Amino acid sequence: MTNTDWTSIRDRFLEAQKGMEQEVVDSPASLEQFRIKYLGTKGILKDLSGYLKEIPVENRKEAGKLLNQIKQKTESLFQQYQQTYSSAGKASKAEIDLSAPGYPLPLGSRHPVSLVMNQVIDIFKRIGFTIAEDREIEDDWHNFTALNTPDDHPARDMQDTFYIKDSIQYLLRTHTSPVQARVMTREKPPIRIIAPGRVYRNETVSARSHCQFHQVEGLYIDEGVSFADMKQTLLYYAREQYGPEVKIRLRPSFFPFTEPSAEMDVYYGLADETAHRITKGTGWLEILGCGMVDPAVLVNCGIDPDKYSGFAFGMGIERQVLLKYNVPDIRMLFENDVRFLRQFSAI
Length: 347
Ligand code: PHE
Description:
Blueprint (H helix, E strand, L loop, with lengths): L5 H17 L5 H12 L4 H8 L5 H38 L17 H14 L4 E2 L5 E3 H4 L26 E3 L4 H10 L4 E10 L11 E11 L4 H16 L5 E8 L2 E10 L5 H6 L5 E10 L1 H6 L8 E8 L1 H8 L12 H4 L6
Parallel strand pairs: 1-4
Antiparallel strand pairs: 2-3, 4-5, 5-9, 6-7, 7-8, 8-9
Helix pairs in contact: 1-4, 2-4
The structure holds phenylalanine.
The site of phenylalanine (PHE) has 10 residues, from strand 8 and strand 9.
């Protein structure tokens, strides 16, 4: 092959470059065409390289340099186009159907304990109780002393109470009653609060009891509050929660911070196996402890017992959950197995 005239080859080089610069790239498809046409294995740049050996030796250096420049320009232009069009290219390849409905997002559901707690709160809110919440790590004074629980009371036993490590002063509250003491020392009567929350006791975990559970405390202090007021309030609760036909009974009991004290049962019946087990075959379920606030407690919290009286109650939530939702084992409420939790409604 004869040596070709360098100037005419150079014209071809420059022409190719011009053509390349004028290419219209505006879509993933034209980007791909551009790549094949210029950078492909049979592309124009490859073609141009083929000319090099035909160029007279003295011009080769210049030719090589020009060719390199053109290559670099082509590649950088290609990269620019690629940034704009290639991701769109992928998307269009996947053929997304923009009219297709989205994936459903699974809705969470409320924990059954929260469901019952919210029902209780709702019921008492309707008759003027407000919510008071407080700490779960309590001090001895609020959990016991203020509540008239003497030093040698069995409830203080290490068996029942979780003390904070190396402390006899701080503990995990064993009931929601310390919130009574906190509210009474802070506020003046009339006081009408409920205190929902988690409590802890050092008990062996079984199908019926757990070392953590939930209570809702109630406290009503004003002038002339009587035992009859308490009874009527609790009857109202039972009717709202278990239906207008529900029966309740109050049994005499003892709590250091109330006098007189009682425990309240609701009659749940013996319709199914869960009812049998949870009511121990009696049909009656104990749901709360209650009583008239002991005057000594009022004094401890700075309230004049000659002027004011009041009642308090503390109800357990878990048992009511077991019964309402037919749950056979209290431990299921704390295991967070989603197959169990999913069965409850999201409201
Ligand atoms: N705190 C008591 C308990 O945990 C319940 C209770 C509260 C009793 C208020 C009387 C008054 O068992």
